[in-house]
Amino acid sequence: MSNRIGVLGASGYVGGAVVRALRSNGYDVRPAAGSSHDAYPTVDVRDRGAVESFVDGLDAVVNTAGLVGVGACDSQPDLAFEVNATGAANVAWACQQRQVPLVHLSSVAAIGDPPNRPIAATSPRNPTTTYGRTKLLGERAVRSLTGDRTPSISLCVTNVYGTSDDASEGGNSVVDFFVDRGCAGEPLPVHRPGTQERDLVHVRDVAEAIVAALDSVDAGYSESRSHVLGSGTAYSVLELAGLVASELRTATGRSPGIELHENPNADSSVIEQFEIDTRPLESDLGFTPDRELREWIATEIDRRMN
Ligand SMILES: NC(=O)c1ccc[n+]([C@@H]2O[C@H](COP(=O)([O-])OP(=O)(O)OC[C@H]3O[C@@H](n4cnc5c(N)ncnc54)[C@H](OP(=O)(O)O)[C@@H]3O)[C@@H](O)[C@H]2O)c1
């Protein structure tokens, strides 16, 4: 097993979960943050020299660094390009030069809204946002630079939810938001039409998939692979609000109202049907996300309300 694993973006939501999962699997983890941090050194992926020094002496790298989210990337498109595209290229370049295997975090936003379902890593790419376009550039850089020379896996992750342990913060997913709002006794706002779907995957499943990907890149494949990583179950946003409302009613006897609002990002396209193909990930990595969303909602509400 490769032992010294560098984690870029370790101060982030997914990166933090990856550090915990790797440590609990016995890896020697070398985390790095994007900006000043209490415990971790800073490695800015835009700085190729800093990335190369970081990669020196490692057995594998996990790149969870990114400028994340549609709004953040729309308001800072230059930064989105520098971090998500050039930054990913810098990491892939440093890994390729040193023959260090790489697991890179991409997003289904890099696939966007392809013409057919299920959505797979092989689907025609049609990103509809700055976030998606810059993540696609990053993923292509990883594929082009590592190619058949250095093993790499890019994971196009759906929407991540949940906490990696009781002390860590939750995610920015719509279901984390609904649980926050509902537990605070506030109504659940749903953007119209409400039928738009989400595939939600638990952050610990994402971290465990990354551990499986590291084991796989270590197994001697010298090729670049991409997979979609999600739970394989899609819910409409209205269904998600309904699930949270129903679990709150069971736990407290009270149910928050569900309010329909106009979508403030009406110009960004809405993905109506979010069916993904999980089979390639399962057959290649031998890993299936298995945390159940409804169970998490019930447990999380119980934890917060009692
Ligand atoms: N969360 C999701 O639902 C989701 C879904 C699909 C894909 N992803 C992908 O998963 C990865 C992690 O997302 P996340 O949700 O964990 O985001 P996050 O919480 O915002 O974390 C982003 C991380 O990237 C670091 N970073 C930002 N700019 C950097 C730079 N120039 N150099 C080095 N590091 C930099 C941040 O460091 P500092 O905070 O220390 O500056 C932070 O550690 C991203 O690639 C994202 O595209 C996430």
From TrEMBL:
Residues 7-221 form the NAD-dependent epimerase/dehydratase domain. It holds the Pfam family Epimerase. SUPFAM superfamilies: NAD(P)-binding Rossmann-fold domains (SSF51735). InterPro entries: Epimerase_deHydtase (IPR001509), Lipid_A_modif_metabolic_enz (IPR050177), NAD(P)-bd_dom_sf (IPR036291). It comes from the Archaea. This is Epimerase. The lineage of its organism: Archaea, Methanobacteriati, Methanobacteriota, Stenosarchaea group, Halobacteria.
